[in-house]
Design a protein that fits this description.
mainly alpha, three-stranded mixed β-sheet
Length: about 350
Amino acid sequence: METRPPTIERPDSLKNELDGMLTREEGENARAAALAMIEFERLTSEAETKEQKSALRNIREKIARSIQRLIWYSRNTAILGAVALAVDYYVTHPELEETRNEQGETEYQHPDKETQRILEVLAGKRSISEQEAFENFRALAKEELSQMKVSLPDDYDNYDLDELDLFISQVLSEQGKQYARGAIKNNFYNNYYFEKVDFPKEEARELYELLWKLERECGNPNIRFQTEGFKIFGIAAKSSDITRPHYDPLKNTVYVTMGSFISSKQKSLTDLFAELAHAKQLKENPVGFYWEAVRSYARIFMTGGFNLEELQQAQQAEYKIRGSFEQHTHSVTEQKLRKQYDELLTAIHGVKGKRGAP
């Protein structure tokens, strides 16, 4: 007689099943759970309305059953999981190309043009235009205004700096907040817009090599100046997290805030190092990376459920749990990178735009 997996009668069984997985280290189970949770994260990427959240309760129960079936047929799942992770890794971790310039010096080329451009900015070889910086600034402002439930005008994306300053000042005034006209404009020039990144001239070549060595060591991830906020399980986080740096392992992409490079008082390359640490972990152990991420996501999900605020609190708590995915990344891997590239961290700083604060 064929033996079948036991059925799960209640959605709460997901919590019980994940609780059990958190105490098991078998590779087959880890890969099975990883596939299920990655699929869950994908399914929840649109969950922002009450209707969507309600529908997720049904999805949650289905995923609980799927996890149990995946574990039941773990041998086949292990093969499938290994293939899926291998394909994802090799697709998202390209190799750098090397050429020689007229002086015989090595020049590095990243397959992703936007990453190449940003790395050249960080290496001091390119400048950022005022318009480019403003468009990025306006996009983040849009994200924050949306979090505040502000209705945006149809032509918002065409606003110049003066129009954006006036609009935000009016919005805040209507909410009873004191925000003088011109404050947004001053904030852009004082705290966000930088024209370029500077290196000491005598060390520029060495630091250029170090920057690209760091990129290669961490799996050559794509890099983006972020235009939207951090999300938990695909759900937009609170407005205070709009400029929070983050790493997307499925895209192997690091997101950092453009404004963090404006001066030595800001975080500068610190944010980049913090998220590159995740990319380095993924490069060194793809399967282990996803398993540790699953354990972390499981704790977050079981603690926060479908309450966004509780999800955010649970996610923040991960940084303090000894041995957790986030704690190990930033207390161990990141610190090793910092020590190894300390010269780069201390030498790089942003130079404010030509116009300066009006």
